[in-house]
Amino acid sequence: MMRKLILSACLAGVLSAFAGLSALAAESVVLAPVPALDAPLAKAHGTETAILSGGCFWGMQDVFQHVQGVTQAVSGYTGGTAGTAHYDTVSTGSTGHAESLKIIYDPSEISYGTLLRIFISVAANPTERDYQGPDEGTQYRSMIWVENAEQRKVADAYLKQLASAHTFDARIVTQVAAAMPFYRAEAYHQNYATLHPGSPYIALIDAPKIIALRKLFPGLYRAKPTQVRIASNG
Q1: pLDDT tens per residue, range 132-166
Q2: Superfamily the domain 32-195 falls into
Q3: Residues 25, 51, 52, 56: which is the catalytic one?
Q4: I want to staple 151 with a disulfide (CB 3.0 to 4.6 A). Which of 36, 146, 159, 192 is the partner?
């Protein structure tokens, strides 16, 4: 797996070069347009759920932990069964699972469509099928798992809007599907980017996403990321 290769092959002395590459990568992101169809902000505080898949969940989690209105972002697996929802098994690409993120958010502070806009602009490239960057396999596919009819309406409309506007040079391959059971990933995957900022993989692959988030969505950027609470027994 490419993550393991990068983690093992890169030396700490190369991190200064990674910082330059990260800045360049952040400059190349595409700011997707505001969704033409979106759910209005709720009048009262509460929570709703969004489940997204788009490559390694380390970077996905890192992005949304820095977004205002997100109360929790949990790395996990969805698309397969409970019996195969384990990292080593999912990594074979044969389980139906995708590395995913369960986002708990306050709909009075941020809309579902805005979450999708951040997902498309910053967290994952919607033109990459069954891979994201250096990570390859069906477990890295780009998916929007809708919880209800309203989410499906917003997601379908937004993908059509992006395609019609030719927002990206390549065809959008992100798919929309009904939400399936979400299985929380192992404790060592939670808050990974925050806990391992010196990791070469995080510096090269995920740090540019946070730079881009801060640049493209300054009003939604939160400097201190919200963290997943991990039980003492792991």
Answers
A1: 999 999 999 999 999 999 999 999 999 999 999 99
A2: Peptide methionine sulphoxide reductase MsrA (3.30.1060.10)
A3: 56
A4: 146
